[in-house]
Amino acid sequence: MADTATTLPPAQGAPRFDIKSMLTKYGAWIALALLILVNLAITPNFATWQTLNVNLTQVCAIVIVGVGMTLVIATGGIDLSVGALMAIAGALAPLIFLGKLFPLPHPAIGIALAFVLPVLVAGALGWFNGWLVTRLRIQPIIATLVLFIAGRGIAQVFTNGNLQVFNLPSFQFIGLGRAFGIPFQAILMIVIVAAAAWMLRRTVFGRQILAVGGNEKAARLAGIPVASVKQRVYLISGLLSGIAGLIVIARNSAADANLVGLGMELDAIAAVAVGGTLLTGGRATVIGTLVGALIIQLVRYTLLANGVPDAAALVAKAIIIVLAVWLQRQSHR
Amino acid sequence: MSTTSLKLFQGIGRYGVLLALVALILFGWLRYENFLGTFNVLSVLRYNSMFALVALGMCFVIITGGIDLSVGSTAALGSVVAALLSSYGVMPGLLGGLAAGLAVGACNAFIITRLNILPFIATLATMLAASGCALLLADNQSVSVSYETGFVELGQGDFLGFPIPAWIALIAYLLGSLILNFTSFGRTVLAIGGNEDAARLMGLPASRVKAVVYLASGGLSGLAGVILAAQFGAGQPIEGVGWELFAIAAVVVGGTLLTGGVGSVGSTLAGVLLLGLIFNILNFENGLGWISLSAYWQSVIRGAFLLLVVAIQARLSMRAEEAA
C-alpha cells in the first residue's frame, strides 16, 4: 500500500489515505527525525560526537535484548525473564575471571571463559523457557515469569547479594572499548541488529518465525516445525540477554545482581512496541526495534538535557508507547 | 478446552492450593515453636494484606482475560498521595490514596476499552506513568507520614485484636467473592473471559464491565498503597517493583486460568498466603540455626513453586485433553 502511495501521482490516489499509510509505515522514522531536528534546534551541544556516544551507549543493552524480544514477540510469545538472565550472566562473569568459581590455569583462559560461559548459561535458561512453552504448553507470560522471579534470586544467591567490583580492561573492552572511535558495544549492537534483520527477512527460519506468529495452526499444517522454531527464539533471546548482561557489568566496572537488567523486560518490550512490531505476532521489524529504542532514549535525553526531571520522562515514555501502539492499530482497521 | 479438563483444572486450583497451604502450615506448626503463635500469625496477616488487595484486583482482571501490570507502581503512587495527605487526617489520606489508584485504573480502562490497546501494553505504559507521577509528587524521596492524625493506625493498628489492614483485606475478599459468584456483574466478568465476542453478542455490556474491573484493580492497588504508607510510616515512590508479578503468581497458583473465564477469589487469597508463608518459613528455618539461607532464596523458592504449580496444571490439562 505504501509502495503505491509513493509511485502513483498524488492526483490519482486519495491523499488522506496516503498520509495515513505513510504515517503508519514510516511513523517511527518520522518521529526519530523530528526528535533529532527538535534537538538540533533547542538542545545545546547536540550535534557532537560525545552526545552520539552517550546516547548510543545508553541504548545498546536495550536494543540487543530488544532484538531477541522482537523475535519472541514475532512468534506470538513474550519473554519476561530477560532482565533476570542479564543479572545471572552479570553475576557469573566476575565469579569466573576472579577465580572464585574454580581455579584458573591462566588469566587469559579466565577471561575467555567469562565471555563464553555466562552467555551459554543464559542461553540454556532461555532454552528452558522455550521448553516450558513448547513441551509443557505453558503460556509464555507465565513460563517466563518463573525465571523472572527466580532468576534474579539465583544471581543474588551466587554473589550473596554483594557488589563485585573489578578492573580488568581486557574483559571490559566489551563495554568500554572503542574501535575506530566508536564504542565497541555500539558496533556489536549494529552487527546483531543487521544479522537479525537479515535472518528475519531472508532466511527460512525468519519466514517460519513470522508464519508461526501469524497463524500457528496454519503454520503447523504447512509443515513448519512450530515447537522447534519457538524453542530457538527463546534460546536466542536468552543468549542475547547474556551478552547484554556482560556489556552492562563491563560498563559499570561492577556487577550488582540486585540491579543489572532491572526493568529491562519493560524497556525492551516498549522498544519493540514503539518500533512497529505487531504485539500479537506475525509481523516484526528488527530495525524498527532499534529505532523504537532510539526514540525512547532520545525523548529521555531531550527532557533531561533541557532540565526536565527524569520522573517526568517516565510519563512521556508512557504516552509514546500508547500513542505508537494506537497509531499501529489504526493502520489495521 | 473440554469440560472435563476444565473441571479438573478447577478442582486442582481450588483444592490443590488449599491442600498445599494446609500442608505448609502443618509443617511450620510441627517444626517451629511459636509458628502459630498470635504474634507470628498476626504479623504475617498484617504484612500480606496489601499483597492480598492487589491480588484480588488482579484476579478479576485475569478472569476477564486481561492483565494489569500497573498495580505495583499504582500502589507506590497511592502511598505517596496518602502520605502527603495524612497530616489532614485519616480520611483524607485514605481517600486520597484510593482516588490516586482509581485515577490510574480509569486511565487503564480508557486505553483498553476505548483505544482498543492490548491490556499488557496499556498497563505497561500506565505503570511507567504512575511511577513517574509518584516520583514527581514525592520529589524522588520517601515522604514521611504524619503521626499526629492517627493515620498510621490504618497499617499498624488493631481492631478487636485483629490487624486493621487484615480487616480491610478480609472485607474486600468477602465482597469480591459475593460479587463474582452472586451478581450479574460477576457472571459477566466470567463470560467475558470465557469468550468476549460471544458475551458481546449476547448483549452483555462487555466494555463497561471491563472498564469497571480495571477501575477496581486500580482502586484496590491504591488502597494497598495507603496501607503500605501507614504500615511503614512513609509514602514510598519506589516501592511496588515486582508486585504485579507477585500478584499474577498468586492468582495463577490459586488456579485461576490466565486465559480467563475461570477463577476463584478464595483460592487467590490462599495463593497469596502460600507465597507469603514461604518467606515466613524461611525466617523460622534460619532461626533454627542449622542452615543459613539468605533472604535471596525467597525468590528462588517462590519461582520454583510457581514452576511446580504450572507444570502440574499443564500436565493435568494435557492428560485431560488426551482423554477427551
Automatic annotation (TrEMBL), chain A:
InterPro entries: ABC_transp_permease. The chain crosses the membrane at residues 26-44, 56-75, 82-102, 108-128, 140-159, 179-200, 233-251, 257-279, 311-327. It comes from the Bacteria. Its main location: membrane. The keyword Membrane applies. CDD domains: TM_PBP1_transp_AraH_like. Keywords: Cell membrane, Membrane, Transmembrane, Transmembrane helix. This is ABC transporter permease. It comes from Microvirga arsenatis.
TrEMBL record, chain B:
InterPro entries: ABC_transp_permease. This is ABC transporter permease. The keyword Calcium does not apply. CDD domains: TM_PBP1_transp_AraH_like. Keywords: Cell membrane, Membrane, Transmembrane, Transmembrane helix. It holds the Pfam family BPD_transp_2. It comes from Microvirga arsenatis. It is found in: Cell membrane. The keyword Transmembrane applies. It is a multi-pass membrane protein. Its main location: membrane. The chain crosses the membrane at residues 12-32, 44-63, 118-138, 164-190, 211-234, 240-258, 265-282, 288-312.
